[in-house]
Amino acid sequence: MPDSSDTVVRIGLIGASSIAPSAIIEPARRRDDIEVVAVGARRPGAAASFARRWGIPRAESSYEAVIDDPAIDVVYVSLAAGDHARWSIAALEAGKDVLCEKPASPTLAEARAMTAAAERAGRLLVEAFHYRWHPLFAHLRELVARNDFGPIERMSSSVIGSRPFLADSVLHDPALGGGALRHSGSYAVHWMRLLARREPRVAEFEQVRGPLGADASSTLGLEFPGGARGRVVSSFERDRTGGDPPELVVESAMSRIEIQGLIVPHHGHSVRLHLAGQPLRQYTLAGRASYDYQLDEFVAARGDSTTARIDRQDLEAQAAVLDAAYGRDQDESR
């Protein structure tokens, strides 16, 4: 449990990643009760360079040095997805709460090992789907729950962004947990699960593999209890164009919502809402950076056993869908 005598939460970073400044460092600086105190990286000189650039007091050449520091309360893990389980479990076993970048794990087995470690340690483990804490997503959940929207029948998402192939990139190596579905489409899987409030079955999965075998693009079909269907298109092969469908479309028998910019809503988003019998509305919602909301929620949840259980369940359920998709493709290719 957090020490109530010390109101400052001290965060250590595992990995000198490009997402850490937006996801943790800058949100922490906008609060007076959180400090990022250390960064650990194994590449020679990476931690020291990162620490100088971002004003972090300590740079360590090993992850263990951060995890074993008794002054650190929270560990933020942002590595290759294939390394997330090992180092998240180590941090949990050292008594730290863990915020782990998505995808938290490339396999269901590793996800279960992570959640079991969190439960044994009595610590918080959260997969960093930051978008869900922004007012935009709260508003979307309220819309689909309205009686005049009706039961969800179809959801579709197009998550497209150019990630040119690099042989040493963690995004393109399946051994490191790479792949377009895991790194881009996982957002869509996550928001469809939360909107449906039920866990889906993988009905289809087709992929175009890159040079190392990870999916450079893919199409995932989901079926939810009650009959709702979801379709997720993920691609590293190109950037979005004006002719692409919205990032998310949710449809009932007579109503439709289109959302653009759901992943990072503070960079710009739009809502197009057409409820049955009402004129089309197009609008945006005010809000801070989604990463700020995520950090707020994470810190508030420390020591809350109910929230910790829900977050563990979510992480495991998310991994189950991705694991089933890739497993289905392997079974069908034999």
Describe the structure.
The chain has an eight-stranded mixed β-sheet with strand order 8-9-10-7-11-12-13-14, covered by helices on one side. A six-stranded parallel β-sheet has the order 3-2-1-4-5-6, sandwiched between helices. The chain is an alpha/beta fold and 334 residues long. The protein has helices at 20-29, 46-54, 63-67, 81-93, 108-121, 135-145, 180-196, 290-301, 305-332; strands at residues 9-14, 34-40, 58-60, 74-77, 97-100, 125-127, 154-160, 201-209, 215-223, 229-235, 248-251, 256-260, 270-274, 281-283. α4 (81-93) packs parallel to α5 (108-121) and α5 (108-121) packs antiparallel against α9 (305-332). The protein is globular, with a radius of gyration of 20 Å. It contains nine helices and 14 strands.
Integer-rounded radius of gyration:
20 Å
Number of domains: 2
Secondary structure class reads: alpha/beta
The helix count comes to: 9
CATH architecture of the largest domain: 2-Layer Sandwich
Terminal Cα span = 48 Å
Assign a percent range to the helix content.
25-40%
| Main beta sheet | 8 strands, mixed
Major β-sheet strand ordering = 8-9-10-7-11-12-13-14
Order of helices and strands: EHEHEHEHEHEHEHEEEEEEEHH
Residue ranges: pLDDT <50 for 5 or more in a row? 1-5
* Number of distinct beta strands: 14
| Average pLDDT | 95
Provide the CATH topology of the largest domain. Dihydrodipicolinate Reductase, domain 2
What sort of overall outline do the alpha carbons produce when their principal axes are compared? globular
CATH class label of the largest domain? Alpha Beta
Share of residues in strands: 15-25%
Q: Looking at this structure, what is the CATH superfamily of the largest domain?
A: Dihydrodipicolinate Reductase, domain 2
